[in-house]
Amino acid sequence: MLPAIVILAEILVGRQRLALPAVSLTLALAHWVAQGMFGVFAVWRPAWQSDTYVLAYVCAFPAPLGLFYWRYRVPLSFALFLLSIAAVMVALVFVILEKAFGASFILETYPHVAATILLVAALAVFALAMRYDISDPHRLTLRSDIAFWLHLAAAPALLYAMLGFIVTFGQGGIWWGEGAWVRPSPSFSSWRSS
């Protein structure tokens, strides 16, 4: 898949500067990296309930996405590069906390700490998006396009991090799509029934 991505990128993005193929090939490259890392970990058969493996997984993304941006100047690839660096930083914080607390997976063992870390990271991505947005008020450079993709990532990241504070975390919890709404307190129930 990688040779096809490179050849098509050279023709469609490098020479013809087509926008839709640039986005598609950037996403194809990110997908290729993701599938490659899953293939590597399938051989090792790790327990994915460990922040160390998550860190190893996300560390594979910055280099190919950075090289793709350097070669073709696709705004999405730079936004994904910045997001992958943010993911590496978050995973690194989780690994440090895993070692400090002796927990196997911070998202499951300390969910509110994880939600706080993810909220800070989402706010940092939003601030970065605003910086790129404000630096190009007339929308003349690639900075506004990069800001668009960063905003597109920051919005669901903020929502998902905030949901981490109001949804329960049992049996997989919100992180795996199995969260349940927190039950109201007895005082709220009695107030509502009166």
Question: How would you explain this protein's 3D organization?
Answer:
With 194 residues, the protein is mainly alpha-helical. It is 76% helix and 0% strand. It has nine helices and no strands. It has helices spanning 2-15, 19-44, 51-58, 62-72, 75-101, 106-109, 111-134, 142-166, 186-193. Helix 5 (75-101) runs antiparallel to helix 7 (111-134). The longest helix is centred in the middle third of the chain and has 27 residues, at 75-101. It is flat, with a radius of gyration of 20 Å. Mean pLDDT is 82; it is low at 180-194.
Could you name the key traits of this structure?
flat, mainly alpha, disordered C terminus, 194 residues
Average pLDDT rating:
82
Please tally the helical runs, counting DSSP H or I stretches of 4 or more residues: 9
Uncertain runs are 180-194
> Ends: how far apart?
64 Å
Radius of gyration, in angstroms, nearest whole number: 20 Å
Question: Which percent band covers the strand fraction?
Answer: under 5%
Structure class: mainly alpha
What's the order of the H and E elements?
HHHHHHHHH
Measured as a percent range, the helix fraction is over 70%
**Silhouette:** flat
The largest β sheet comes out as:
none
